[in-house]
UniProtKB/TrEMBL annotation, chain A:
GO terms for molecular function: ATP binding; sulfate adenylyltransferase (ATP) activity. The keyword ATP-binding applies. It comes from the Bacteria. The lineage of its organism: Bacteria, Pseudomonadati, Pseudomonadota, Alphaproteobacteria, Rhodospirillales. Keywords: ATP-binding, Nucleotide-binding, Nucleotidyltransferase, Transferase. It catalyses: sulfate + ATP + H(+) = adenosine 5'-phosphosulfate + diphosphate. Belongs to the PAPS reductase family. CysD subfamily. Pfam families: PAPS_reduct. The keyword ATP-binding applies. Transmembrane segments: none annotated. This is Sulfate adenylyltransferase subunit 2.
UniProtKB/TrEMBL annotation, chain B:
The keyword Cytoplasm does not apply. The keyword Nucleotide-binding applies. This is Adenylyl-sulfate kinase. It comes from Skermanella aerolata. The lineage of its organism: Bacteria, Pseudomonadati, Pseudomonadota, Alphaproteobacteria, Rhodospirillales. Sulfate-activating enzymes, NodP and NodQ, may be physically associated. InterPro entries: APS, APS_kinase_dom, CysN_GTP-bd, G_TR_CS, GTP-eEF1A_C, P-loop_NTPase, SO4_adenylTrfase_lsu, T_Tr_GTP-bd_dom.
Length: 264, 632
């Protein structure tokens, strides 16, 4: 087994555990590189099928290329796509810094969705290497009724025995890609030929390294115009992946506050 | 110094997972921050950010803030939860796992350490090995982390004294030896100042051993588990189309298309027909670590929790396990309590039969106790009513360990040190005050389940009732569970979907089994059209079970049509009618076939009576220990 096979196999194991143990499941699809890999792994795990709804939390602020990619892929892969409109920024916590407040719209959209659809498990394509509070996550991360992440008291998780039993009304975030790195994602996408939103490839000296809404995400300097060049770039870069994400860098605890109240 | 992945040989691409453990404040988080910095692995801006965080809290530069990401962690200066970070040396990529040292957070330490290939045990040179240093070392051993290097930190606080280093080394070496861990190397460093982390230090001229990074690179890659006996715990069964795919991850060993697999604890075998995959060339072999799907040549009843092995190297099947466990919950474990045991994908209800002893982590002596409290390690005997397929941890760690759940939560982990093997055909499930032998002796015959299967109209109910009358008149305890009858009561909530039909049969089988255990001869009369469902009934019925095919061809049955059902099925009024619009899978190895097409009713009954009498007769009327269900 290669290192990529091993990553794939672990993710497939996690997906199958969740599918067996948890009744109402959905997958959050941000349409970025990670959640595309996640969808691909779902098809691996379930022999070509995606046996649960795929949800896009839509703020209306994604770039046009993202919407186009969404519609084509949803059709080609026969996805049960749910588009959840997020509430407006004016309804967010005014004490949050501006970009963080914009990002919080997705948290609220997710809460509304959970309440309505009563999902018990939500797949999210986050990775430990993206961000320091994500590095503290469990693979199966239980959430209180209001979506709050109690990071000071997380369940024991070892030997691949995950927390799959919950009190009524609570839910779990499932993170099948937690152990992958950004470089792994690209090497795997290349190996498998997974479709990619073209915004990741450099044009005029800039590319998106992390894809988010157009008001709070910015392209970074890069000349990597295809997958191979991206892989070479990542092998030497020291710029953090989320450098182009405004909300990560507003205050020391901005992202922690966002996540503990239910952000992905 | 960051080395591009492309320059790393493919064999070395696989990450080494290293956990950093030790007593709180001995410098684990600091060491990691320093290591990342000195190997130029920190992203741009990180050092400035840490400087700013330290300044804001009125502290000198605090390396531990690199890893301690949570506000609460920085404010209190302790690591609360485990975290992971990637970095690379010239030799290979690493995942470094920081584990909290505070007793309060032992479950987080276990979470982090359980996935590691090797560990660094960090000990403060001034303080030596304290309680958590020892507990962590012991847990590493239980968690299966075999390679351990010891890091003696804060050498700057003891004037880089060789004597002090030697004392601390000798103490920890003795301890590790006693618990069966061979320490690789013992390395003196100062994490805060960077001595001997990446570069050799002038402050430690007497030390000729490796730097911390060299010690990391000296860890051996984990050995392949392909050569061990095959264990494939079944995770789920999928039916994406006409295929019936058993999904699971190979924990150890390898398999190949054509191999005959044995399934524990149900004691069935079948051959692998294919290894299924999506968007990948079809393979004919698979090895340890792979999540796979397979199809079999027979529709045997396999479900999540069953373990596939090769016939010659099967797991132990046991009701009684002796385990060494570590307890993580605030409610103590006590004798008599029940928990859910999870072992690979299987779950069993277990009760604590007894607590053998609780270990004193300091001096490694053991003493008897009536409870196991949080963070303690103990030897305990667990009893399961259902049969557990298990290995000894010493032979196969992955299938020789598991967790206990109390309600919704994992409350402890264990490794299996002993398992009393049970012969699957000779189990004692429940200890009744009346033994099966006594019941048989009182009745003058054994209990049995006579499972009649056949098409509608084949004569199942008719000959079942004939049998019941005859046996009753001879003084036998006998009762017929008729399909139509149970559907009005016990199974009144079930319809005719495939799931409901299967459940109908399962319930009848369980009920029949209880009757048989109570000493009765139970006759069931259900069409039970699929081999899979009947195989399941046979598993439930165990040694009581006899399959009797009441055979008559479709034409004969249809011409009899006592209830007018065939006629209605033919005109489409009854969907999925067995024989007309749904298949009937005739038994391949029934214990008895009665051809009601060729026999008259009383002839057929007589044949069945003879079979029933022979099956349930006491061969040794005085001890009555020989019958079909005896000892079950
Ligand atoms: N003098 C000195 N202090 C150290 C050294 N390593 C860590 N420390 C300090 O010890 C304290 C605890 O360190 P930390 O990394 O949080 O310990 P942990 O609980 O093991 O993760 C911090 O104040 C560190 O600055 C060292 O090598 N020398
Ligand atoms: Mg720490």
């Amino acid at each position: 087994m290669t290192d990529l096979d091993q990553l794939e196999s672990q993710s497939v194991y996690i997906l199958r555990e969740a599918f067996n143990k948890i009744d109402r499941l959905a997958l959050l699809w941000s349409i970025g590189k990670d959640s595309n890999v996640l969808l691909w792994l779902v098809r691996k795990a379930f022999f070509g099928k995606v046996p649960f709804p795929v949800v896009q939390l839509d703020t209306g602020m994604e770039l046009p290329e993202v919407y186009e990619f969404r519609d084509v892929t949803a059709r080609d892969w026969d996805l049960d796509l749910v588009i959840e409109q997020c509430p407006p920024e004016s309804e967010m916590d005014p004490t949050l810094p501006p970009a963080t407040r914009a990002a919080a719209r997705k948290t609220e959209g997710l809460k509304a969705l959970l309440k309505r659809e009563q999902y018990q498990g939500i797949f999210v394509g986050i990775r430990r290497d993206e961000q320091a509070t994500r590095a503290k996550e469990r693979v199966f991360s239980p959430r209180a009724l209001d979506g709050v992440w109690d990071f000071k008291d997380q369940p024991a998780e070892f030997w691949d025995h995950y927390k799959t039993r919950f009190a009524e009304g609570t839910h779990v975030r499932i993170h099948p890609l937690l152990h992958w790195t950004e470089l792994d994602i690209w090497r795997y996408s290349k190996r498998e030929g997974i479709p990619i939103v073209p915004l990741y490839f450099a044009r005029d000296g800039k590319r998106y390294r992390s894809l988010g809404e157009k008001n709070i995400t910015f392209p970074v300097d890069s000349s990597a115009a295809n997958i191979d060049e991206i892989i070479s770039e990542l092998e030497i870069t020291r710029t953090p992946e989320r450098a182009g994400r405004s909300m990560d860098n507003e205050t020391e605890d901005a992202f922690e506050r966002l996540r503990s109240s239910g952000y992905m | 110094m960051t080395t591009p992945v492309s320059e790393i040989p493919a064999s070395m691409r696989r990450q080494a997972r290293i956990v950093i453990v030790g007593h709180v404040d001995h410098g684990k988080s600091t060491l990691i921050g320093r290591l990342l910095n000195d190997t130029q692995s920190l992203p741009d801006g990180k050092v400035e950010a840490v400087r700013e965080m330290s300044r804001r809290r009125g502290m000198p530069f605090e390396w531990s803030f690199v890893m301690d990401a949570l506000q609460a962690e920085r404010d209190q200066g302790i690591t609360i939860d485990t975290t992971q970070i990637h970095f690379r040396t010239k030799q290979r990529p690493y995942v470094i796992i920081d584990a909290p040292g505070h007793t309060e957070f032992l479950k987080n330490m276990v979470t982090g350490a359980s996935s590691a290939d090797a560990a660094l045990l960090v000990i403060d040179a001034g303080e030596g090995a304290l309680e958590q240093s020892r507990r962590h070392a012991y847990l590493l051993h239980l968690l299966g982390v075999k390679q351990v290097a010891v890091i003696v930190n804060k050498m700057d606080m003891v004037e880089f004294s060789q004597d002090r280093f030697d004392d601390v080394s000798a103490e920890i070496r003795a301890y590790l030896n006693e618990i069966g861990v061979a320490p690789g190397v013992i390395v003196p460093i100062s994490a805060r100042h960077g001595d001997n982390v990446v570069t050799r230090s002038e402050n430690l001229p007497w030390f000729k051993g490796p730097t911390l990074v060299e010690a990391l690179d000296a860890f051996k890659p984990v050995a392949s588990e392909d050569e061990l006996p095959l264990r494939l715990p079944i995770q789920d069964v999928y039916k994406p189309d006409e295929r019936r795919i058993l999904a699971g991850r190979i924990e150890t060993g390898r398999l190949r298309v054509g191999d005959t697999l044995h399934f524990s604890p149900i004691n069935r075998t079948a051959k692998i027909v294919s290894i299924e995959a999506w968007n990948r060339e079809t393979a004919i072999t698979a090895t340890a670590g792979q999540s796979i799907g397979i199809t079999l040549d027979q529709r045997i009843f396999v479900e999540r929790g069953h373990v596939a092995s090769l016939v010659s190297q099967r797991p132990i099947e046991s009701h009684r396990l002796t385990v060494r466990l570590f307890w993580l919950a605030s409610n103590p474990l006590t004798a008599g309590k029940t928990y859910t045991l999870k072992l690979a994908t299987a779950e069993h209800r277990v009760s604590v039969e007894k607590i053998i002893e609780v270990l004193n982590i300091d001096d490694l002596t053991a003493g008897s106790a009536d409870k196991v409290s949080r963070n303690e390690i103990a030897d305990v005997v667990l009893h399961s009513r259902s049969l557990v397929a298990v290995d000894l941890a010493i032979d196969l760690p992955r299938t020789g360990r598991g967790v206990l759940l109390d309600g919704n939560d994992v409350v402890g982990g264990f490794v299996v040190t002993q398992a009393d093997a049970v012969d699957a055909r000779n189990l004692q499930r429940v200890e009744h005050a009346v033994t099966p032998t006594e019941r048989s002796r009182a009745n003058g015959h054994h209990g049995a389940v006579l499972w009649l299967t056949g098409l509608s109209g084949a004569g199942k109910s008719t000959i079942a009732m004939g049998l019941e009358r005859t046996l009753f008149e001879r003084g036998r305890q006998v009762y017929v569970l008729d399909g139509d009858g149970v559907r009005q009561g016990l199974n009144g909530d079930l319809g005719f979907s495939p799931e409901d039909r299967a459940e109908n049969i399962r319930r009848v089988a369980e009920t029949a089994r209880l009757f048989a255990e109570a000493g009765m001869i139970v006759v069931t009369a259900l069409i039970s059209p699929t081999r899979e469902d009947r195989a399941r009934a046979r598993e439930i019925g165990g040694a009581f079970f006899r399959e009797i095919h009441v055979a008559a061809d479709l034409e004969t049955c249809e011409s009899r049509d006592p209830k007018g059902l065939y006629r209605r099925a033919r005109v489409g009024e009854i969907p999925d009618f067995t024989g007309v619009s749904a298949p009937y899978e005739a038994p391949e190895a029934a214990e008895l076939v009665i051809d009601t097409g060729a026999l008259a009713i009383d002839e057929a009954v007589a044949e069945l009576v003879a079979f029933a009498e022979a099956t349930t007769a006491l061969k040794h009327p005085r001890d009555a220990t020989d019958g079909p269900g005896d000892g079950i």
